[in-house]
C-alpha cells in the first residue's frame, strides 16, 4: 500500500519506511490469534523498511462476551507522527488532527491517505493536507492472502 501511495504522489518521493500499528492478542486469552499475529508481524518485519508497533490488547472483565480493545495505539501513532515528521517520516490514523497540526505548525510537510468515499483528515477551513485516495483496486492489489494461523 505504501508503495502505491508513493507512486501516486505529485511530488517525487521514495519509500523509506513503513510503520504498522496494531494491537496484539494476549497468548493467555487468545493463544492461536497471538501466534498468528506474531507470524504476521515477523513476516512484515522481514522487509528492513518495516517496523511493526504492537501493544497488548486490553481484555474487559466480560471478555469474550465483550471484545478486546486496542489501547495506546492512537497515542503511540500520534507521538510517532510528530517525531517521524521531524525526521522526515509518515503515519496515518483518524484521531491525528492535533498531531498533524503540530507537524504543520513546525513548518514540515504532511500528507494523508484515505479510502475513496470516506471522510479524510483535513485542517479546519482548508483542503490541506494533501490526501491520497485509495480504492478497491488498491486494496486488492495489496491484499495479503497468507493464512497466518498455520505454522
Description:
By secondary structure, the chain is of the alpha/beta class. The strands form 2 sheets. A two-stranded parallel ribbon has the order 1-2. The chain has a two-stranded parallel ribbon with strand order 3-4. The longest helix is centred in the middle third of the chain and has 15 residues, at about 75-85. The mean pLDDT is about 85. Helices cover about 35% and strands about 15% of the residues. The chain is globular.
Oligomer: single chain
Helix-strand string: HEHEHHEEH
Strand order, main sheet: write it out: 1-2
What is the β-strand count? 4
Could you tell me the strand content as a percent range? Answer: 15-25%
Overall morphology:
globular
The separation of the N and C termini measures 26 Å
Helices, by number, come to 5
Poorly predicted runs are: none
Major sheet size, sense and barrel closure: 2 strands, parallel
- pLDDT averaged over residues: 86
Radius of gyration: 17 Å
Helix content: 25-40%
What structural class do you assign from the helix and strand content? alpha/beta
Reconstruct the topology from this structure.
Elements: H1 2-7, E1 18-24, H2 31-44, E2 50-56, H3 73-87, H4 97-105, E3 111-115, E4 130-134, H5 136-142
Parallel strand pairs: 1-2, 3-4
Features:
151 residues, alpha/beta, two-stranded parallel ribbon
Entry summary:
The chain is an alpha/beta fold. The chain has helices at about 1-5, 30-45, 75-85, 95-105, 135-140; strands spanning about 20-25, 50-55, 110-115, 130-135.
Amino acid at each position: 500500500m505504501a508503495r502505491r501511495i508513493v507512486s501516486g504522489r505529485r511530488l517525487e518521493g521514495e519509500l523509506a519506511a513503513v510503520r504498522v500499528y496494531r494491537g496484539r492478542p494476549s497468548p493467555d486469552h487468545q493463544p492461536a490469534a497471538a501466534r498468528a499475529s506474531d507470524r504476521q508481524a515477523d513476516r512484515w518485519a522481514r522487509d528492513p523498511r518495516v517496523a511493526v508497533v504492537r501493544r497488548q490488547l486490553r481484555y474487559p472483565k466480560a471478555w469474550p462476551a465483550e471484545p478486546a480493545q486496542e489501547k495506546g495505539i492512537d497515542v503511540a501513532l500520534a507521538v510517532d507522527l510528530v517525531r517521524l515528521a521531524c525526521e522526515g517520516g509518515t503515519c496515518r490514523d483518524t484521531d491525528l488532527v492535533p498531531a498533524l497540526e503540530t507537524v504543520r505548525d513546525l513548518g514540515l510537510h504532511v500528507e494523508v491517505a484515505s479510502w475513496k468515499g470516506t471522510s479524510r483528515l483535513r485542517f479546519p477551513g482548508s483542503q490541506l493536507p494533501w490526501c491520497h485516495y485509495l480504492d478497491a483496486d488498491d486494496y486488492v492489489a495489496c491484499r495479503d492472502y497468507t493464512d497466518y494461523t498455520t505454522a
